[in-house]
Protein: Zf-HC2 domain-containing protein
Amino acid sequence: MRPLELHRDVGAYALGVLGVAETFRFEEHLAGCAHCARLLEELGSVEALLAAYARWTPPGVDPVATPSPGLLHSALGAVGDRLRARRRRRLGLLVAAAALVAGAPFAALELMADPATPHWTATAAAPGVTATLAAAPAGFGTDVGLDVGGVRGPAVCTLVAVGRGGEEDTVATWAVRDAAQVTMRGAAALAPADISRFEVRTRDGARLATLTRSG
Structure:
């Protein structure tokens, strides 16, 4: 018998299903094969589990009996229910995420339309760039709504709140595909009173607009 075939006999030997001659040949091989000895040790726990399963099987019941059609139908139904529940959860998360994305511009417009919310205007801007901003105090710092347009894409832009001491908070980051108007909502950890200005920048640090308080 070739060594490869002897290696494959580990499981059969562990379960005691080899014939007398095959058992003798495998034990000769096992004496000099560390790989098979290690596999045989690992299979010891499997053998113990199978023996326990055989002991627990009620008398007169075949431990490897073919499942009835009813059992198969029930098992397949349970699996189907679990998959459908998983799909429903995934769909719910997608719907919630879409609602947040779709609602963000309306929330920003609502904030910017509130006359009680302090507004900021661009005092310096790159050619063609326009920007207005509303900043309201919030428990977390500052609630910010931004409307910006005229940025030439493709580009990645960032709105940064600059504190009176020079510290910076990133309020929002977005991608620009063309020069279309973009409306968004973000937040800063700095309180409105601690913010000196807002800056719209590109990813490489180029300043597109500087916004200061109106009036």
Notes: The two ends are 95 Å apart (CA to CA). Helices lie at 3-8, 10-15, 20-30, 34-56, 69-113. The longest strand covers residues 130-138.
